[in-house]
Amino acid sequence: MTEGTHGFPEEPVIRDKRRIDPETGEVRGASAQDGAAREGGPAAEQAGGGSADLAEARAQVAERTLDLQRLQAEYANYRKRVDRDRQAVGEQAVVKVLTELLPVLDDIGRARDHGELSGGFKSVAESLESVVAKMGLQSFGKKGEPFDPVVHEALLHSYAPDVTEPTCVEILQPGYQFRERVIRPARVAVAEPADPADAPAGEADNG
To answer: Where is this region: Disordered (predicted)?
Structure first.
């Protein structure tokens, strides 16, 4: 036994190094170790891993969103093509029927010009003309309008001093169009301006 600072014997210090606390039966230092582990160990790793997983999930959501938008755009374009094709097929069927009726409409027009459109025939003719007009058929071609090779077909040609450009001077057969589509051009007689050099000398001097 050793003596202390004041000459009194110093009591021995007993350190209990037992890992199991005899009173509680718990492992000494386990709570502190668990706290430290929770503060700086797996929790930190889980936090870092969670951020990476969240970023990956967001990237996948963005990619799936783009895929969905592309699919929607492709479907919308597909629907438009189908609608256009369906409309085109329907218009072709209508044009075919109207084309078959053009000779009948020509007969009605000639009968009207000769004053032969009367009685029951007149009623039927007007009903037919009303029906085809509702379907979208329109006639065109007027005397005196400029000649347009896109919508006019010249059957007769002449020169005239009273025109300044190629002009339809006679409508031999009206043209027909369905909406913006020409079914049959108007058949016309065309006159072009006369060349003054071709006129007789006296007429040229008087002009």
So the answer is: 1-55
